[in-house]
Queue: 2 jobs
Job 1
Amino acid sequence: MTDLLIGVLLSASLFALLWPFLFYPLILRALPTLPEAPVAITPPSASLLFCAYNEAHAMPEKLANIAMLKARHSGLECLAFDDGSSDGTGDLIAAQGDLVTLIRGPGRSGKAHGMKQLAARARGDVLVFTDANVLLDGDAIDNLLARYADPDVGGVLGSLHYIGADESATASVGSLYWRIEERLKDEESRTGNVLGADGSIFSIRRNLYPDFPDSVLDDLTVSMAVVFAGKRLIKARDVIARERLVTGRKDEYRRKVRIAARAWHTHVHLRPQLRQMRAIDRFKYASRKIVRWFGGIFILTGAVAAGTLAMRISPMLYMVGALAVALTIWAGVRAKSGPFAALVDIMIAYAATLQGVVKAMTGRTVTTWNPAKSR
């Protein structure tokens, strides 16, 4: 391999790593704004849906949050699916009487299955999806439903604010990543469509809810149905949800592997419809999702290219560089905070995502989940 090819490989790897976080946002900012066109309508009715598994510790605060929301919106329908919890989560929900309509699953069947059960029973014009450990601000429902005054809007995402960013390097990196993600969604929304939602807080018109297998990532599948239907999927900054960050590396690693595996499986399931999207939406989807999923490969190719180039320049340079990398990783693994720990957590995140994608490519997927103990 010539020095030129090595340099090209190294440059291409760095470019691909930086694309979702630097070049893609710059391109989005250069695109024109696509304004909304609201009309005078009566606000639609809404159903709030969430699934839970062994979330007894989060239920008192969650149920109090729901009671506050229903006090402000007497017509708000709330439904919950208990996915075979063994810690009394379902009993805590049932004890609240008619505050929440509870559906108990027969055992572990997964969030996608549970959400389909809830959506089939919901009566609201708009389905609002959230997680069992997520709390909504008091004006979140009002602000969310107001965006449906534009008939072209088929789905609305909220803004997730994480709590506990200073509790560990893992939490700090997760918080930074999510702030970047939120800004990207803001820019995508301003220019047309956001390309996919996460499960913390998003909504769609009930008549757009799709059919899908239990093995897919339901929040991505359901939110993308809005784009496939030719409606706008937008983000509302004033619809605020709050959630505690995962602080343990093992918990975060397992979570990212699970999410990545299901995301790739979902990508394969949606591929025929993805190909039919407008060019701008295909560009957004590839930039924010596909390029990130393979970030681990870009790190590996960049490391190999850098090491090869260093060896060709000087074996001593290669040895010094390798030792510096090893010491940095060693320090980061031992540290609980600081730049070295943050660097290790970033590498772990890329490794977990790549593992999940490879897992899905080999035919394996994950349908159930466990709440993180370090949240």
Job 2
Amino acid sequence: METRILGNDLEVSAVGLGCMGFSHASGAPTEKSVAVKTLREAYEMGYTFFDTAECYTGVNPDGSTSYNEELVGEALRDVRDKVVIATKCGVHHAPDQSLILDSSPATIRASVEGSLKRLGMDAIDLYYQHRIDPKVEPEVVAETMAELIREGKIKHWGISETTEDYLRRAHAVCPVTAVENRYSLMARWHGSLFPVLEELGVGFVAFSPMANGFLSGAYTVDSKFEPGTDYRSKMPQYTPEGFEKSRALMELLGRLAEEKNATPAQVSMAWMLCKKPYIVPIPGSRKIERLRENLGAGEIELSESKIATIDTALDGMELPVFGGSKINK
């Protein structure tokens, strides 16, 4: 499996695995033994970069809590030195699934201890501030992360859903290894950060690289998602209007997939992989066949001219507006 470097020296598989769906936001949590087995199979097939978070939790049928970090930790514990595990702090979900933001130093410190225990690790490879907390200055967050690095609790740190100003201020205090923002053919607004990332030497981890599965082409307007526990039930791309607005894009993806003897999902990620050498998509799936398919995106080559042609076509499309769904990972 091809690898990429985030920041100065964090080597990861070119395609990572977003683990959230095993316990959060994709319907009922996967049964623990099945989740652990699937995560381990992902490693065996070539994934070395796994993304989780303390707030990725769900309720099991017996009423117990499914902690995503525990699943990841159990699956990968005996190959710890061969994988990179990223987790996050600073976000909790209210009962209505709205976000509660808290990046105070005390909360970050309590969170890192909890994550280390759930993961069964001595140090976290990549620790993200999950969302910007308007109550806490970036310099304060960065200094807390610097202290955790000095103490050996974490090895690298990053920011999810950051802005240029926030990134610059935080990076000046403690170098940031990666930002993790939404990015896909349907969500390109964070592309404006690329010149800044190149200037600072920061990697870009793309969450929802297939627009929460939409770009796989596996769903239709009749697809149903569990209300409340599956965030796709409220996402604009999955509405009848969303499917209609996305018709031209899906037709374009279909043509490219046929041309490359690939799948729409693979082409949608190859577009970003071939665009910049520091972009690492982290698609999520609970199905072995999908995990294998997603990994294959790293083998597809798209020329600069082909990428430019795709971008020009996207510029002329009126795609669904994500709005508030930007926050859902």
